[in-house]
Automatic annotation (TrEMBL), chains A, B:
Record keywords, A-Z: DNA-binding, Transcription, Transcription regulation
GO terms for MF: DNA binding; DNA-binding transcription factor activity
SUPFAM superfamilies: GntR ligand-binding domain-like, Winged helix' DNA-binding domain
Domain spans labelled HTH gntR-type: 2-69
Signal sequence annotation: none
Matching Pfam families: FCD, GntR
The protein's name in its UniProt record: HTH gntR-type domain-containing protein
Length: 212, 212
DNA sequence: AATTGCAAAAATTTTGAAATTTCCTTGCCT
DNA sequence: AGGCAAGGAAATTTCAAAATTTTTGCAATT
């Protein structure tokens, strides 16, 4: 089974984000090498790049480890995400034009569609992949007109880490849960479209505070 | 001339931050290898880690390049630094105790001492190294009680990038310049010590806005 | 004169193994 | 029994060369 480097990266990132590789677990290039059918050094390269994203911890002479998941870190990631998203949204509301509004509306429409399906269905699991993608797109679109590449990049990294920290956390995905989520996303959209900076700030906080 | 990996990292970081390696310049492992007396792969490793910090750009199959310096990026880095420092200082003012106040006062005292010397002297160049270190310590201490490892780490990275963007920019380092800097640092310290969040936010902005 | 195609050169990535460091087990001494 | 040291196993880092990819230079065509 021959795999190319970008695929190794993608596969490891997915396993990291779905907790198929569990927090704290040691990542040995010499072991993964066999699985991917490449040399240990290639795996090492990929892991170094994953440590840039923050999914993996690296310590010199001590190798790699799946980033640990603690209540402290979850809170830290969440607070940082809130900071970046509030600022990104604020700037987007100041800079964004109709194009931004259109893209945001579109992203929200798709997200809403999936969330409605989930709210009606029994089992959330089969929707999780699609929902994740739609959620990410909505939030990234929200900050997309902030005019700061650094903010957008950093947000992308922290979002990925957020997912890593939250997955594996057993939560009550009852229909209540998704009804709340739907309302929260709606509140963010509404505030953004009328450029109400304070309302949007609050809506973002209310959406994410459950993870603090 | 045999050099260990951490020293290669440190040396490259210094050259990157002092513009001895100029923005946009290509970084070829096969060339640096000769200079450091190690293999190309070792250099590659170091460069991958420097790209995590943001000093170096990496693109698959295209190698490494010193991060470009443009007015846009300078502004972006500066705005992001302002965001992080304002939030870090705000949280520190809420969480920090006397210990924090003491460390901040100490850091400011050292910084002030060097800045006074510079303001009296003709040539700033010989002081630049010491001043850089003292400035970094002051700003890092300011946010040190924020309680967010992620914020502190990210600030560290962005500070380094800030230096990289600003060095090489010809500026008027007349005595006026350092008199302003002294006043600005003092304003930040004063606001922080009396926990005046708004004043501190403004003082940080006023200190950094010249780079926008 | 500009553009496309091809071949040579240069640079990057990958490899497999050697060298080094860390980690763990075992045995010795207090 | 507890702690420390030495030895061996495992893991990480480094190396030099091979394989791959990109870039460059030159000629042929439009």
């Amino acid at each position: 089974m021959r795999v190319e480097t970008p695929e190794i990266f993608a596969d490891l990132q997915r396993k990291l984000m779905t907790a198929e590789l569990q927090p704290g677990e040691k990542l040995k290039p010499s072991e993964l090498q066999g699985f991917y059918g490449c040399s240990a050094n290639t795996v090492r390269d990929v892991l170094l790049r994953l440590s840039k994203v923050g999914l993996v911890e690296f310590e010199m002479q001590r190798g790699f480890r799946v980033r640990a998941s603690t209540p402290e870190r979850r809170g830290d990631v969440t607070r940082f995400r809130i900071l970046l998203e509030q600022e990104g949204a604020r700037l987007s509301m100041l800079n964004g034009g109709v194009g931004w509004e259109a893209r945001l509306t579109a992203a929200h429409h798709k997200l809403r569609h999936i969330e409605s399906q989930i709210a009606r269905s029994e089992d959330v699991v089969p929707f999780m992949g699609l929902w994740s993608d739609a959620e990410l797109e909505f939030h990234e679109t929200l900050i997309s007109s902030c005019g700061s590449p650094i903010l957008r990049e950093t947000y992308g990294d922290i979002y990925v880490q957020f997912r890593q920290q939250m997955v594996g956390l057993e939560r009550d995905f009852g229909s209540n849960y998704f009804h709340s989520i739907i309302a929260e996303h709606q509140a963010i959209l509404d505030a953004a479209l009328v450029r109400d900076i304070e309302a949007c700030r609050t809506a973002i906080y209310d959406h994410l505070k459950r993870n603090l």
